[in-house]
Amino acid sequence: MKSTHRALGAAAAFVALTLASSTSAQAATWAASSPATASCSAPNLFASWTYGKYTFNNDVWSPCGGVAAGAQTIWANTNADWGVWSDQPNTGGIKSYPHIGYTVNRTISSMSQLSSTISATTPAGGAWESAYDIWVGNNAHEIMLWLNYTGTAAGCGNVKPISYNWTAQGCAIPVYTNVNVGGATWNVYRGNNGSNMVYSFLRTTKTNNTTIDVLAILNYLKNLGWMADLVVGDVQYGFEITSSSGGMNFGSKNFSVTVK
């Protein structure tokens, strides 16, 4: 269900500027489009662009896992102004994770602050989550913070977290519920995607606008004994899209990461 393509990137990705399908992208500083395809070698699946300390990636990874993806265009002006237009088919499986990333490269204990701010716009339909993806310990641990999503905090609906345990009705079972940490209340899920451990925090009150104390969440996981004092790699934020049939727009404003 999950892929580490998002964190590892694709060094061989073909990058090209292009006009976007979204009117917001027409005047963008950078934009790249990938076609509807089932081929992992299609152009711009992993198109990327660097702006200061931030890196953007189109990250249409499902064709590399055998699931056909629809057309997608990512665009960006700055870390505080970027978005994506995506037309993913109404089929099962995550198709893409267009995102912005910031490399931390610090151990958990060496930081006094690791926080991030986001303000997003998301569509009413489709199947997706607006989420942080934080990679720790050379990508052995993946922490997902679901801020807004089309499923439910109880692990049901059309998007669900990775979990070791499931109900007879097909809903993920949280390990902990109503955990207050990092500036919000979450249901916490634990599982493995075949490549790495995944800890999913589903915000019990969905939002598009927030500031998160990421360090507090990492220390919470460390105190549980789920991971050690490891190096934090990338802090990513984006939109994990399962379906957005007909084309839907996602936008991100005011994104920043603070490390001390």
Automatic annotation (TrEMBL):
Q: Quote the SUPFAM superfamilies the UniProt record gives.
A: Concanavalin A-like lectins/glucanases (SSF49899)
Q: Which InterPro entries match?
A: ConA-like_dom_sf, GH11/12, GH12
Q: Where is the signal peptide?
A: 1-27
Biological-process GO terms, alphabetical: proteolysis
The alphabetized UniProt keywords are: Carbohydrate metabolism, Glycosidase, Hydrolase, Polysaccharide degradation, Protease, Signal
Q: Name one Pfam family in it.
A: Glyco_hydro_12
Identify the Gene3D superfamilies for this entry.
2.60.120.180
Q: What is this protein called?
A: Zinc protease
List the top taxonomic levels of the source. Answer: Bacteria, Pseudomonadati, Pseudomonadota, Betaproteobacteria, Burkholderiales
